[in-house]
Amino acid sequence: MDGMSRDHDMSGMAGAMPPSSMNSGMHGMHRKKMMMHMTFFWGTQTEVLFDGWPGRRTGMYVVSLVFVFVLSFLVEWLSHSRLLKRGSINIPAGTFQTLLYAIRVGLSYLVMLALMSYNGGVFLVAVAGHAFGYLIFGSRVFNKPGHNAVKGFDHHPMTC
């Protein structure tokens, strides 16, 4: 008709096949893959940060929630603590401040990546970790009056 062969070449179809069928068909793997959620869901069977973690055990899910809570708490600690003394030498102090900033940003990205699991429990513990960290380190509850104040603000800007 149009000069094309009726032989069907299936070599280009491998890229169109879903990854799960490619793995089970080509490599003989029959492991059931977890579906990646794109909306919030509730449940303990999720993956947080690493492939296969926390797995299907509820205890490991709780460990992953504690891990995300601690990460978000540490972000708040680094955001609201002053680890450098006034009058420090500029180059070493600036280098140390930059290192702390990089650590804070890295931890923040880890929390964000954990949230991309779209698990409701992970979301709640991340918010709770940030809120608890702010309560301890950023709010007036445990700080002396004026300790973190900067010209009309209740708390200092987020610096290390």
Automatic annotation (TrEMBL):
It is a multi-pass membrane protein. Pfam families: Ctr. InterPro entries: Cop_transporter. One of its GO terms (cellular component) is plasma membrane. Keywords: Copper, Copper transport, Ion transport, Membrane, Transmembrane, Transmembrane helix, Transport. Its main location: membrane. Residues 1-10 have a biased composition (Basic and acidic residues). It is found in: Membrane. It comes from the Eukaryota. Residues 1-22 are annotated as: Disordered. One of its GO terms (molecular function) is copper ion transmembrane transporter activity. Belongs to the copper transporter (Ctr) (TC 1.A.56) family. SLC31A subfamily. PANTHER family: COPPER TRANSPORTER 2-RELATED, SOLUTE CARRIER FAMILY 31 COPPER TRANSPORTERS. This is Copper transport protein. It comes from Carya illinoinensis (Pecan). The lineage of its organism: Eukaryota, Viridiplantae, Streptophyta, Embryophyta, Tracheophyta.
